[in-house]
Amino acid sequence: MGRRGNTAPRREVSELDEVELKRIIWRSRRGLLELDLQLERFVSEALPQLNEADLLLYRELLQLPDNDLLDYLNGRSPCPTPRLLPIIERIRAAQR
Amino acid sequence: MAVPVRKFDAVIVGAGGAGLRAALQLSEAGLKTAVLSKVFPTRSHTVAAQGGVSASLGNSEPDHWHWHMYDTVKGSDWLGDQDAIEFMCREAPNVVVELEHFGMPFDRNADGTIYQRPFGGHMSNFGEKPVRRACAAADRTGHAMLHALYQRNVRANTQFFVEWMALDLVRDEQGNVQGVVAMEMETSEVYVFQAKATLFATGGAGRIFASSTNAFINTGDGLGMAARAGIPLEDMEFWQFHPTGVAGAGVLITEGVRGEGGILRNSAGERFMERYAPNAKDLASRDVVSRAMVTEINEGRGCGPHKDHVLLDITHLDPEVIKSKLPGIREISIKFAGVDPIKAPIPVVPTCHYQMGGIPTNYRGEVVVHDQVVPGFYAAGEVACASVHGANRLGTNSLLDLLVFGKSSGNSMIEYIKTAPKDLPPLATADVDRSLARVARLDGQQNGTPVESARAAMQRTMQNHCGVFRFKDMLKEGVEKILEVEAMVRTIEIADKSRTFNTARLEALELENLIEVAKATMISAEARTESRGAHVRDDAADTPEHPNGRDDENWLKHTLWYRDANRLDYKPVNLKPLSVETIALKTRSY
Fold first, then answer.
1. Active site residue B117
2. Under CATH, which number does the domain B8-50+134-238+354-427 receive?
3. Is B177 helix (H, G, I), strand (E, B) or coil?
4. Which residues contact residue B66 at a Cβ distance below 8 angstroms, ignoring those fewer than 6 apart?
5. CA-CA distance, B513 to A64, in Å (whole number)?
6. B215-244: per-residue pLDDT in tens?
7. Where are the domains of chain A?
8. Which value does ipTM take for this structure?
9. Could you please report the per-residue DSSP string of B328-351?
10. Chain B neighbours among A 56-95 (CB < 8 Å)?
11. FAD-dependent oxidoreductase 2 FAD-binding domain: from which residue to which, for each copy (chain B) (predicted)?
């Protein structure tokens, strides 16, 4: 429903082929509006610049329950998984 | 064209609370049940429900389902069907206790019983005083509900088809429902899911409005599919709005902000609530505030380049108060309005939240058209109109609706499937062909309208012409405009024609569903010349003959909108409960 672009970034990657990238973009659609809005902005503005390692972390982040993810993005509670902190910070940065 | 067919006893579209509750009923009865969902089930919009689920358990103080029923009828402004409301309120304690047994982590009292808190509109002794009726799991009731139901479904072997989008209903020549056409997102392959019984539990369509609290997935897919299949949509003029959502985003700004001293201002910087409510001012009731905001915008005193919102000003408050008492609001404003409310006012607009109307059903979840059950077709949750919410929904009754009617439709489907012939009948192909043609049209369209522009035109038209407070001339013009938008939607075009997870194609298909809901809403609202519940018109004012503008002689009836020629029909409200006396008509006041 958002203004999310439909063209996934192209790059030479092993695990993250075009299909996987587009799957990640679709999975950025959530059950909570506040997540949709933040992830829409992140996907259109920051996702194309991510390297493969960051993309894998973003994919992992998308596995989180909506409420937990929103709490981490809003800084309401800290994410207990340290390796996800940088990607959370990048999403937060995309909102400014 | 040959389309692969997958066969089940039951197919359910939508994996939110209603779909999961129904699926559980069917799978536990040993029936082969498929659930289709655009997103992973626990990321359905049910997750957004925080408030709780109401049931007259009476754990903290005396309560009774009859009192709950009274509150629900009154909340509905007497448009709710009293048989369905009695059924829901009587079933409430059962479905809540069942959910507890499914592992739902309800908040508890010291004695181990479910903790209950008060919630707006829920009273004891037929409207006497507030009662504690809402059961919650912290502020994550919807989330916890989805998890409990999903786990239970996995155990019961429900077959989930995640990241599938249903496209169209399949009916045979007699109108019996045979299943759905659906698209697998990963491949864009189209299949038929044929079943003895089909349930729509696809949620609401709040995205028809420019400002909505609904997630992007709430595109009324079930309503669009039903409308295209000749099923009318009931009471679509009734939508619940919240006065202050961030303009352009829809995220809610709690009413507590006005409680802390927030002031609404128009483009001249005027504190306009002084004119509308000289005493309560910015603390006037939701309806009064929403109406005043819309009037300011309509009379040209809105703010911003499109003059389409007003401002909520807290810049006069001590920054420390804002930081300590309203930290969440500051965060929301910075993120979604790009404004630090310590320095500048927040742009706000009345924002759509919940759809009361939907696919007409009875309290058994069976879809009913012209007093006849549509064989094999069921609907539950926000997509359905049972009708328990009537012209306005009571808080915490939406989660209850999911549980009660998810379960009852599941039970009705079991009964129907058990009496159906063992083998599925031959598949009627006319609807399948029409569905394929719709997808082919989209893929082949040239020189068409971009999805984005058509969607924006629809959302703007709905917001401006059919929002929280409605005007006769604006509605009339709105009907013309939405039909123009419909013509745009008929030629929508996508640039990306790729087959894998093509978000553009999915959004185009979603828009074809939204536009059906938008037409139904505008046309139904234009025709209903009274004010009732959430449908409030400037030309149906509060008079001694018609308190609150409600006109029972002419309008105590349900609207039915048919897609074919945009025909409207009406049916009586069922004022006869199952076992108790009618809750007699009365002026609704709180």
1. no
2. 3.50.50.60
3. strand
4. B89, B126, B580
5. 29
6. 999 999 999 999 999 999 999 999 999 999
7. 18-94
8. 0.95
9. HHHHHIIIIIS--TTTSPEEEEEE
10. 65-67, 74-76, 95
11. 9-399
